Amino acid sequence: MPEDLSRDAEEFLSWLTVEKGRSRNTLVAYRHDLATYEAWAAEHRVEVHTATPGDLERHLADLRAADRNPASLARATTALRGLYRFWVGEGTVAVDPTADIRSPKLPRRLPKALDESQVLRLLDSVDGTEPVDLRDRALLEVLYGTGARISEVVGLSLLDLTGDDDMLRVFGKGSKERLVPLGSHARMALERWLGPSGRPKMAPERFAHRSDAEAVFLNVRNARLSRQGAWAAVQVRAERVGLGDVVSPHVLRHSCATHMLAHGADIRVVQEVLGHVSIATTQLYTRLSQDHLRASYLRAHPRAGGVTGG
Q: Which residues are catalytic?
């Protein structure tokens, strides 16, 4: 399938890159979906700028007939919806033909947590004394130790390190503020990073932006570490210990919650730490294996043990 796009579709991808900061993987996937759509439209003599809802439905039906899985169909629908919304905003088309098209429902998948031994292997591998080593160790310890989202961690400013050394202030979705506990290992890693051998050595004499000067985490170009930069740092560290295929910032967040629950934390506490509005979301993140649930049940329920004869 050719990946060449029309100029108007290329402008949409450029907008996603520059204005929305979409990841390379997302852009590659959207390019494929849009190229597939434009090729289908050419084959069926559909003018994409005047396509109707029926045209879009036919295209998606053909994708389903080609055994596209639900996730792939949902992504293609999202790409097309984004394209037409962009074109409407730019005045390229007058009407959005995707307005009433719904994405297929996807099963709620549980993110996979790491074993505690895998987390320790990852953390203990970052033991260098260079500033970037101190930064990455602190980044990993905070991600796993607090369960904070990657966007929340890179958004940390020095003033968010509250006067109470055991708490960290983060700003979640909708800029909602919350305090999360900061464990001893995360606190020590942060102290080392913020000490003379860490952040000060990566900080310039003069920052280009005030927000960079206030950032807890910096990149090698003396600016605030971006979400993409932090993700890449986590990936590099994971690959070095053979965990590149299973580790991401989100997996560390889920591992934090899962391990807390495994060690007896109340689910309401985990909900507060993660910043979930709904307890149902926390249950999705923190569901344990059936083996662990059964083992906990056998330990806790007075009538769950073996029956003894009289």
A: 149, 173, 250, 253, 276, 285
